[in-house]
Amino acid sequence: MQDYYPFNLGQYTKRITTSKKETQIWFDRALLQMYSFNHEETLNCCEKALEYDQNCAMIYFLKSIAQGINYNNCPEYLNPIQAHNQHESWKKANENKEKCSEQEKDLIQALQYKVGNGKSLLHKQNDINFANKMRKIYKKYPQDDFIAEIFAESLMNLRPWNLWVQKQENGLKYGDPYQDTLEIKEVLEKGLEYNQDHLGLRHLWIHLMEQSPYPEKALEQNFNKSLIQLSPDSGHLNHMPSHIYILCGKYEESIKVNELAIKNDEKYFQYRNQQKYPSFCSYIGFICHNITLLIYSAMFAGQYEKSYKGGEYLLQILNINCLKDNSSIFFPSTAFRLESFVPIILHVYIRFGKWEEIIKDEPFGQFLSLNQVFSNPDLYQSTIATLYYSKGIAYSVLAGKNLNEKNNLLNKAQKQIDLFNQAFNQIGNNRFLHNCNMKDVLAVAHDMIIGEYEYRCQNYQKAFQYLRNAVQKDDNLPYDEPWGWMIPTRHALGALLLECGIDNKNKSYIQEAELVYRQDLGEGVIRSVAHPNNIWSLVGLYKCLIQQGKKEQASKFKNILDEKILNTDISIISSCMCSFKKN
User: Fold this and answer.
1) CATH number, span 1-227
2) Which domain of life is it from (predicted)?
3) What are phi and psi of 70, to 5 degrees?
4) Is the pTM of this model over 0.70?
5) What is the per-residue pLDDT across 513-567, written as a single tens digit (0 to 9) for each?
6) For the chain, what are the domain ranges?
C-alpha cells in the first residue's frame, strides 16, 4: 500500500485545511516525526502529503519549520541552503493560504519573521521576532496544544541548553531560571494540563527540567502514560526519559529505554534503505546520542559488556564514508559534529581497566584501523588526541602495577603525554561532542593524564593538584546529557587519595576522598554534576568510612551497595580501576 507506514508514532492529530484525507494522514506523521526531532523524515512525510494535495499551505508551513534551526541544532549561522529552503517553503505556504483557517493564516504570517529574506545566515533576531509573534498567537489560542508547542520551542531556541543558571552570574545563583524560562515553564505546564499525552510538549518538558534543580519533576511516573506507550516506535522519544533517569540515579531504567530506542532507530534506518533515501541523514547523530547515553548509563551501573558493545556499535556506524558525508543541510560538516563519538570505546576501556586493550596494536578492533586514523589526521582529530590520552593513562597505571618495568612504562607514558599535547594543539575550535567543544573536553584529559602520571612517579601533591584541576574543569563543562566527560573525574581523584592515604597513613587524604565521593553522589554540588547511587562512588565512600572507623555510617550504604552489585558484570573494588590495591 502506498500510504503504509511501518511506525506507530502515536495517535495525535492536528486538523489542517485540506480536502485529501491522505494529506492529513501524512501531515500528522510529519508532525510526530518533528516532535521526535527527526527533521529529515518530517520532510519526507511532507513530500508524501504533497503528492495528494500540492496546494496545502500547512504542509509547506511544516516543511519550513523543519528546515530551520531547532533546539538540538542551533549554530550561529544557518547553512545557506537551509536558509533558502525554509524561505522557499514559507513562500509556498503564503501563496496557498487563501483557503486556510484564521489560525493557520496567523501561523503562516508569523513564520515570515523566522525565515527572513532567505539570504541572511544570521538568524538570532529572526528567532526573537518569531517568538514574539508566537506569543500573540498563543494568547489568542491559549488552549491549543499545537500552538503551545510551537511557542514554547520558539522560546527555547533562544537559549538552547541554557535555560537555568548553572553558575553564579549577575546576581543570579545556581538553579535560578532565566526570564524566558519561567514563561516556557508556564506554557508547558498549561499545555500538559490540557493534554498530558502531547508528545511535543512532553519532549520539551524533559529538556526544560533536566537542567533545573528538580529534574525528578519530569520523571515518567508523573504521567498517566509513558512516552514509550504513547509513541512505541519513536526511537528518540523512547530515549528521552533517560535524560532524567541519569540525573536521578536510575541507571537500569536508562539502559532499558535506550536499548529500545536503538532497536527502533535500526528499524527506521532499514526503512530508509528500503525507500532508497540518501544513506546519510542527520538523524545518525541521534542514534549515536542514544548509544552514548546507553554506554554512559551502563558504565555507571558497572556493566562492561553493554558498554563495550555500545562502543563497538559507534565505530560500526561512524565509518569514514559517514564522517566525510556533508550532504545534509543540518550538518554542513559531519566530522565537526560526529567524529568525537568515535573514540568513546576508549573511555569504556579506561572505566573498566582494560589497559591491555588500549595499548595493543589495533585498539579499535575490526571497525577502525590505526592506519586509517593516522592517514586522515584532519578527519580524526578528537580520536587521535583521545587515543594518546588513553595510552598515557594505561601506561601510567601499568607502571604502578609492574614495578620491574616501572621506568620503561613511565617513559612510554611520558611519550604519550607529549603526543597528546601535540594532538590537542591540532584540534579545531569547531570540533564538538554535542554541546561541548572538544578543546574544553580534552582540557580535562590534559590534567587527568598528568595527574595519573605524577601519581606513579610518587609526586603525590602535584598529582592531586592536577586531578583536582581536572574535577574543576569537568564540573564547568557546558550542560550536556550525557556529560561531556564520560567518566567522572572525582572517581580517579577519590580512588588515588584513598589509596595514598592508606599507604602513607595520611588521614587527611582519606577524609578528602570521603568528601569527593559524597560530592559525586550529590552532596554539596549542583544536580548536573552529581551521579546519585552510582556503584563506583558507593564503593569508594564505603571503604573511606570503614577506614575511618565510621562503621555505623558505612552500614547505611551497604544495603544500597549490595543491591547495585547484583547488576554488575565485573568485580568493582575501587571507584577507579586506576587504583590497583583493594584498599
Assistant:
1) 1.25.40
2) Eukaryota
3) -145, 175
4) yes
5) 999 999 999 999 999 999 999 999 999 999 999 999 999 999 999 989 999 999 9
6) 1-227, 494-583
